[in-house]
Amino acid sequence: MGLFIAQLLTGLANAATLFLVASGLSLIFGVTRIVNFAHGSFYMLGAFVGYSLMQVLPGAIGFWAAVLLSGLIVGLVGVVVEMLVLRPVYKAPELFQLVATFGVILVIQDLALMIWGAEDLLGPRAPGLKSVVRILGEPVPKYDLALIALTPFVLFGLWYLIARTRVGVLVRAATQDREMVAALGVNQSWLFTGVFFLGAALAGLGGAIQLPKGGADLLMDFNILAAIFVVVVIGGMGSLPGAYIAAVLISVLNVFGVSYLPQSTLVLMFVVMAVVLTIRPYGLLGREEVVGEHGQVGEPERPIKPASMGARVLVSALLIALMALPLAGSHFMVILATDIIIFCLFAASLHFLLGVGGLVSFGHAAFFGGGAYVAALLVSHANTPMELAFLLAPIGAGLAALIIGWLCLRLTGVYFAMLTLALAQLLWSLVFQWDELTGGDDGLVNIWPAQWLSEANSYFYFTVIVGVGGIILLRHIAHSPFGYALRASRDSQRQAEATGIDTKRVQWMAFTVAGTLAGVAGGLFVFSKGSIFPNELEIAKSFDGLIVVFLGGVKTLSGGVVGAASLELVKDYLTRFEYWRLALGLLIIVVVVLAPRGIVGSLRLLYERIRGAAT
Amino acid sequence: MKRLKKLTMVAALSATTLAGIAFSATAADPIVIGEINHYKRMAAFAEPYKNGIELGLEQINAAGGVIGRPLEFIYRDDQGKPGEAIKIAEELVNREEVAMLTGTILSNIGLALSSFAAEKKVVYLASEPLADALVWEAGNDYTFRLRTSTYMQAAMLAEEAAKTDAVKYATIAPNYAYGKDAVAAFKKALTALRPDVEFVTEQWPALFKIDAGAEVQAIERAKPDAIYNVTFGGDLAKFVREGTTRGLFDGRNVYGLLTGEPEYLEPLADEAPEGWTVTGYPWYDFEDGANKVFVDAYIARYEENPKIGSLVGYMTAQSIAAAIDKAGSTEMEAIREAFVGLEVDTPVGTIMYRAQDHQSTMGAFVGTTALRDGGGVMVDWTYKAGADYLPTDEEVAQMRPVSK
Predict the structure, then answer these.
(1) What is the CATH architecture of A329-541?
(2) Which residue range(s) make up the domain with B264?
(3) Dihedrals φ, ψ of A55, to 5°?
(4) Which of A214, A258, A331 sits opposite B214 (nearest CB)?
(5) Predicted TM-score (pTM) of this structure
(6) Binary contact (B23, A573; C-beta < 8 A)
(7) Pair B240, B257 in one domain
(8) How confident is the model at residue A434 (pLDDT cuts 50, 70, 90)?
(9) Which residues does A298 contact at the CB level (< 8 Å), separation at least 6?
(10) Which residues of A touch B246 (CB under 8 A)?
(11) Minimal CA–CA distance to B109: which of B209, B22, B42, B25?
(12) Are B168 and B317 within one domain?
């Protein structure tokens, strides 16, 4: 009994940090609809700033003052980010802002490295709360009790702010209907800035308050990211009490998971999320997302049309140049081009889902990595010839997409995205954990192509044919009757249904097609590298895809490919420098601010303006 | 005006892109070695290692270089991704025409590079990755490994553990390949020495996401006599803090793999655990000999303390120089043959790259942790030679695939 209570208390104490950080994310999303990937970075900053302040402020008062000040300082950093980076892109297509926040992550990572150095910092302990008290004979750290006592106050304070003040009324109104609030004459930008301040401050507070239980290090930002997204989704996006319940649920289950099922540490929270979303599609306390009659935010997407003669000539010329690369370029350029084409196919398949289908998936890497693993497993365990394994890779990925698509398509919008993330993560942990079959994170090695493709040049041509073929196939599908049905389902589900389109079925098929082609890319990848590791299934890989699709332009047909090719080329160049993350982050932010329609969308607009001016 | 800005932007973008493509190699007078590591993702580990290499190179080149040519390293960041590392390896081999490859801390990237090395017939010295598979199950002709492997270090701790009366053991290790290997190796070595021991609980926190309070409670619940710890970095700090606060370590023997390495012990400062039996690097206590010479030179050069990574980096440079010297050329096959059975004089003594599995015989320092001047140190340590803690040749031959 004593142990049970002690474990419960540990869980509750762990929930404190999780709740603080997640509530900030939830607030920001609720009001601004921004999926703030940089929230983990605010948390990390809070820890580093708190650490530095605690070195100079003495005693118990100093400690708590440092915690509060960290929240304040990080909140101000949030304001700067909001005003400089996000304000210019509020009108961009939905979720475009996440690219900007990704740039912020990179910048903060390198700045933190410059300021605080590479070594892990051990958090100072809270003065006066260093020891334990015995509860039913079990030791419970005093600081844990302080955290448990503190959280309800924060929750109450936030609740009061939201439920009882004028600011709160505005925030709630904006959460429900942004346009209406703006129409009523409320200055939206200051409301957004204010919410961003509060959200970032809560993350900073979370970072500072966990110092006595851990410390500050440079991996904190990504390490907490998945957990806070899970908490926000389980609780219901935008719901603070929901976030609290979810944080407690996850933390307490985790404590018992550690004791009774020690191997469960990787998957537990994703299983909980998948279960909750299956039973309650909008989280515990969330409401169904209110979307407008015609779905998308921002200017409506133009109807697609076949490429013009000029565009065809240009693309053909580029393709011929590409085919000539092995004759003119160096060996390494061929390797680099192979890498880029593979990534382009992956991005194109995600773009098909996202742009043409309007389905934002956060777990697309599952099919890329899934395809790669199917091929690798066949080669490693069944000595399958490369050609057969390569053919089976997309089929395996397609099957996975068929199943995952069926499960996820019962939800829409951000909840759909989060369920794809959860299921992708489940697949990742299966691969990560199942050593005997997959080699765990030591991966599968020696998966090289057949003799006739072992030369870099021949593999390059193989990649060009399959990869470019796949990209063209996707483009054709977009123009086919199926593509029309898919776009109709995206733009107006009701009208599409009324014309007799089974929208869910069409979307399900599109999900499967996208998964299959990601599997092709995965198959190409594994044989070009000769090995495969779970990181190709990771959240980070899915995000890489998302970034380039948005960067290229989600509302253009070629956005995915152009975004992928440009970012890979720039990365290949920049990573040669010491502070490449800072440079890349700044570059992404600049591109995002200057080209809020994505590279292709903005270039197209520029071209039309120039032509418009000429005629 | 706005339009102009956008145009300039685009122009600048394409210029950087082109510059990226046009980046070209310089004249190949020095012997160039390609080094791939996680300089950003694991900056705290990679930097001291790089410093070690640079110190080694300065000394080698001051003494006239190798076969009459200066030795040079190209350092590249792989972002912590195996796929990226392979791309960089291709570039280093084909564009920079490096004599051989070395580097990596993370085992999975080491394994990816070793597979690449075998396929493309490029020599790869795995300097820091610890995975046993590198030289055994996934071993190949072109891969050699410098650092004392997981198995060897775990066997050293098991030997110490076998001397005590403890019977009931708990293990805690990060939930990934290194953690699992480290626990498996310890269990194997300890049960061989003491068949009566029992493992009462195995804890597997997710790497860098430990829920330390819960882990401590779970171990306490199993009431072990001794604990074997494989966690490191931030996880270790949290585990030690929660464990100390809650009295988990009182009256128990604790064995910590790598816990004594400055990389992990230093950040703990005055909260470093006392009385743990650990492997590590007690640079502060060398009184004479080659170890002392290295430590002094390092501190003089960088004005900071060496880490175990610094030592490994230094020995990497020494090993490569010795191999090329022995080969007498930069022919890939000659270097590969030179590495087989190569003997190198290093700060920790003469090490040898074994012919049977290409593992070096670098050993490890085993000692007990204590507090001194507000920081954790190792006391009563001894250096254990690596050759004594490897499986028999027959076992190795069974594990290692027949080379193609």
Answers:
(1) Orthogonal Bundle (1.10)
(2) 151-286+365-389
(3) -70, -30
(4) A258
(5) 0.88
(6) yes
(7) yes
(8) confident
(9) A91, A92, A93, A94
(10) 132, 139, 141
(11) B42
(12) no
Chain A with chain B: Cβ pairs closer than 8 A: 224
- Co-location of B344 and B238 in the same domain: no
Q: Are residues B345 and B248 in the same domain?
A: no
Question: Are residue B50 and residue B120 in the same domain, yes or no?
Answer: yes
Whether residues B93 and B157 fall in one domain: no
Q: Give the CATH number of the domain where residue B352 resides.
A: 3.40.50.2300
Q: What's the pLDDT score for residue A118?
A: 85
ipTM reported for the complex, 2 dp: 0.85
Band of pLDDT at residue A162, cut at 50, 70 and 90 = confident
Does position A486 have pLDDT exceeding 70, yes or no? yes
- What whole-number distance in Å separates Cα of residue A88 and Cα of residue A352? 27
User: How much of chain A exceeds pLDDT 70, in percent?
Assistant: 98
Structure confidence at residue A287 as a pLDDT band (50, 70, 90): confident
Q: Do A144 and B111 touch (CB under 8 A)?
A: no
What pLDDT shows up at residue A128? Answer: 87
Q: What is the mean pLDDT of residues A122-150?
A: 89
Residue ranges of alpha helices (H) inside A236-330 are 240-260, 268-279, 309-323, 325-328
Statement to judge: residues B145 and B155 lie in one domain: no
Count CA atoms closer than 13 A to A94's CA, side-chain side.
17
Residue boundaries of the structural domains of chain A = 2-219, 329-541
Which residues from A are below 8 Å from B209, CB to CB?
223, 227, 265
Q: Do B10 and A442 touch (CB under 8 A)?
A: no
- The answer to whether B129 touches B109, Cβ cutoff 8 Å, is yes
Same domain, B254 and B377: yes
Residue of A6, A85, A418, A506 whose CA lies nearest to A228:
A418
Contacts with A610 from chain B: Cβ below 8 Å: 3
Answer whether residue B296 is part of any domain: yes
Pick from A121, A443, A525: CB nearest B111: A443
The number of distinct structural domains making up chain B is: 2
How far away is chain B from the Cα of A528, in angstroms, using its nearest Cα?
Answer: 9
Minimum-distance CB partner of A536 among B83, B247, B268: B83
Among B49, B180, B211, B227, pick the best mutation site for testing chain A contact (most A Cβ within 10 A).
Answer: B211
Q: Closest CB to A10: pick one of B13, B202, B217.
A: B217
Query: Does position B12 have pLDDT exceeding 60, yes or no?
Result: no
